[in-house]
Design a protein that fits this description.
Layout (H helix, E strand, L loop, with lengths): L3 H19 L8 H10 L17 E5 L11 E5 H15 L4 E3 L2 E3 L2 H8 L3 H10 L5 E2 L1
Antiparallel strand pairs: 1-2, 3-4, 3-5
Helix pairs in contact: 4-5
């Protein structure tokens, strides 16, 4: 029988994989690699199972906040730094072309204006409905 911390780690891993899928991000890390990666980054085995709660909690980040979760595309940083980098990348992403049911647009703002919604709402649609709203 698995010990409690390993059982909880498997549950946490399953949750993370499902969240990546929900966000339409490919997750190419096995449980064993994921677990060893956290240990190699100095995270205690009992802390691996806990979700990030403060800005100083360590989290798994993707380089440039793009591409799949893969051992060659991740690094360990604090949640606050990851959020800051994500925000910077999102502001650059706002300037990329995208396609919506109404056509192709030069930016998120232009698409949002055509749909008569806010840019934040358009970003929500891009994440939530990637078949109809996607970056080119």
């Amino acid at each position: 029988m698995l010990n409690n911390s390993l059982k909880n780690a498997k549950k946490r891993y399953g949750y993370i994989v499902k969240e990546a899928m929900r966000r339409n991000i490919d997750y190419q890390i096995t449980f064993d690699d994921w677990y060893q990666w956290w240990l190699a980054n100095g995270v205690d085995k009992n802390q691996i199972t806990l979700p990030p709660t403060t800005g100083q909690t360590l989290c798994m980040c993707r380089k440039g906040d793009t591409g799949p979760y893969h051992l060659n595309n991740i690094y360990c940083d604090t949640l606050s730094n990851n959020n800051r980098h994500s925000w910077l990348n999102n502001s650059q992403r706002n300037k990329r072309k995208l396609t919506t049911p109404l056509g192709t647009f030069e930016s998120v703002r232009a698409a949002a204006k055509a749909h008569a919604i806010t840019a934040q709402s358009m970003q929500y649609y891009i994440k939530r409905y990637p078949i109809d709203y996607y970056y080119i």
